[in-house]
């Protein structure tokens, strides 16, 4: 019996499960976000948090914690994710006490109707999008200019409830007059 056993079995053998979790965590640290099933995302969240915790511990000690680095390297599959963990994610989460990932539930998968999820590191934002955008001040100026132009073209309507009621009464009176003229 499986009483008080932590973790989900995910319908695979223990070696397959271990390899799958290693691959998922490696991909998450390398890419910043991945799409997988909700159950797998919840299981891998535990391991990803442990890896980030080890990176933070190494960051906190002077010269780095060699044991923590070796533990992470023995778990991750490639050096790129290892490098990103210690150079980017560890320092980024230095002031955060936990909860390094978020899970967004997506729709169901077409093939087997399994609920899918997007698991993402909290500080993740695409560098291409940030660099492609103009500075906020320029965007604000363009938006305000466009708003001024549209306000000049169309007269402003009263937004109070009383004005809306009066406008509705006028419309109904005009409709009643139109019906009276037709008859």
TrEMBL record:
InterPro entries in the record: Ribosomal_bL17, Ribosomal_bL17_sf
Matches recorded under Pfam families: Ribosomal_L17 (PF01196)
The entry's keywords: Ribonucleoprotein, Ribosomal protein
UniProt feature coiled coil, ranges: none
Region (Disordered): 146-168
GO biological process: translation
GO terms, molecular function: structural constituent of ribosome
Protein origin, superkingdom: Bacteria
GO cellular component labels: cytosolic large ribosomal subunit
Family matches, as PANTHER family: LARGE RIBOSOMAL SUBUNIT PROTEIN BL17M, RIBOSOMAL PROTEIN L17
Family under the similarity heading: Belongs to the bacterial ribosomal protein bL17 family.
Quaternary structure note: Part of the 50S ribosomal subunit. Contacts protein L32.
Protein's UniProt name: Large ribosomal subunit protein bL17
Species whose genome carries this gene: Candidatus Lambdaproteobacteria bacterium RIFOXYD2_FULL_50_16
Name of the gene encoding the protein in the UniProt record: rplQ
